Amino acid sequence: MGNAAATRPKLTRLTKEQLEEAESCFGMLKGTGFTLSDAIRNLMKNPPTKRIEISFEDGYGQFLAAKKPYISERHYWNYESTARRFSGRLKSGTLIGDITSEQITSWLKSLDCGKKSWNTYRDTLGAIFAWFAAQPRGWVSGNGPVEEVDRFRKRHTLPGPPKRLSIACCCELMAYIESEKPHLVTFFVTTLLLGVRPEGEMTKLADAIDKDGIETYHRGDRLFISADVAKDGRDRFVPYPDNVKAWLRLYPLSSDSVRPGRRTEYAEIRRRFEIPHDGLRHTSVTACTVLHGLLAATKRHGNGSIIANDHYLAEMSREEAEAFYSILPAGLKLSSTSEAA
Hints:
Elements: H1 2-7, H2 16-29, H3 36-45, H4 56-67, H5 73-87, H6 101-110, H7 115-133, H8 167-180, H9 185-193, H10 201-212, E1 218-219, E2 222-225, E3 236-239, H11 242-250, H12 255-258, H13 263-273, H14 279-301, H15 305-311, H16 318-324, H17 334-340
Antiparallel strand pairs: 1-2, 2-3
């Protein structure tokens, strides 16, 4: 009889569905001491942020458009590349609010990258999601799903000893560039044979030449790297070995010739010749240290003497270093170029 009384029809203006929802609400409030009216009043005073339905593709497109006027080309490319690659793992039209930390973690694992690269990709996505969260957008809260993605501590991301190219690989690389990609010859002469950092310094050097003229940086038989260009913020001069003089006679320095090519093109060359991180510079600094000593290497390349001693001094024989500085354009011999120099 009690059950029958509880479930028999009531006089009410509510529909059946509304009654069922009301019963559910009363069930949730049971034992809390709050009435349904209390819950509604609190909700009206503190309404939740209405979710904005926007896809990740549209979101990161707006992010890139907003950031482009204020960041460098390299910085922009990092954002664009990371966002595009992550977007490729999502279903088309996936909403920002539906992305989970598990999806981000799965994508990072699929890259099969080192711990430092893992952190870099994670932090880049974190910056994008932080922009999504900022007002007046408010598409997510905090850093969204990135907050729950693991991040490695700095001591776990320290690089091992620097890796260099073999002399045979250097010869093959320069022969390939001269034959197949001559527009990049001066870039690789400057990064491999002179040890200028390909990431950062070369782009700055090209911009500086555009601004100040080639005479400011190409000073007879040496290259001037100004404090504005150098990674360590200090001026340095890099003398031209005889083989570099030969290369530069055929492929002169200019803002266009030292400017890095398309990143996809550079990445393809790195894969083809298995060039490790900073491998071009490490090879050059090693050869310079072996032939000319620690002091010369630190002055020419901007390394501290401790780093040069620990990482470069015993990594190459003198014969290999001499062979490195004998790499020439096709058809030339060092003796003839030395006399011409």
